[in-house]
Amino acid sequence: MTAHTPGDVREAIAAYLDAHGIAKYEPDDAYPDDLELPAVFFGAMPEAPDRAVTVNVYDWVTTRDKANPDVFVQLRFRGTADMAAADLPADQAFALLDEAEHYAMGDVRVLQSIRRVTTSAALDTNGRYERPESYRFTIHPKGTA
User: Fold this and answer.
1) What is residue 139's predicted lDDT score, i.e. its pLDDT?
2) Is the pLDDT score of 49 beyond 70?
3) Cβ-based neighbours of 85, under 8 Å, separated by 6 or more
4) Going by fewer Cβ within 10 Å, which terminus of the chain is more open, N or C?
5) pLDDT higher than 70, residue 15
6) Are 139 and 68 within 8 A, CB to CB?
7) Average pLDDT for residues 45-73, to the nearest whole number?
8) What's the CATH number for 6-29+36-139?
9) Mean of pLDDT values over 56-85
């Protein structure tokens, strides 16, 4: 058994959101100009496109269970000047991920995911709404079923 990396988890979440029609994930960041779903990025939120979501691992904890780490992830949804453009995909992600148990995101096996923090959407400096959310994913090591 080997451990997953933060990159494995980020990519798995991005692909999972894409597979469920919540966001669009292109590993090479080559998004079309007419994209209607939020584009997925890692790291800092880019200036464009307006509709975007960043996926970032910010903590990896093994104090509760050395074999099955708790991975803390921030999803930051950004929309347009219409608050619903940020709230809708954030709400869809919540419905998909919160208190979900025993599922796979590609080769990342999840024991449980739960939303830990949410907040109201707020305007960024360009007048677009953003809504950050934090989730805890408890995952299996690679190679386990």
Assistant:
1) 97
2) yes
3) 50, 51, 79, 128, 129
4) C
5) yes
6) yes
7) 95
8) 3.30.2000.30
9) 95
Are 129 and 85 contacting, i.e. CB atoms less than 8 angstroms apart? yes
Provide DSSP, the chain. Answer: -B---HHHHHHHHHHHHHHTTSSB--TT----TT--SPEEESSSPPS--SSEEEEEEEEEE-SS-SSS-EEEEEEEEE--SSTHHHHHHHHHHHHHHTTEEEEEETTEEEEEEEEEEE---EE-TTS-EEEEEEEEEEEPPBT--
Gap between the Cα atoms of 135 and 137, Å rounded: 6
Query: What are residue 103's phi and psi, to 5 degrees?
Result: -140, 170
> How far apart are the C-alpha atoms of 104 and 13, rounded to whole Å?
10
Q: What is the CA radius of gyration of the chain?
A: 15
**CA nearest to 19, candidates 108, 119, 134, 111:** 108
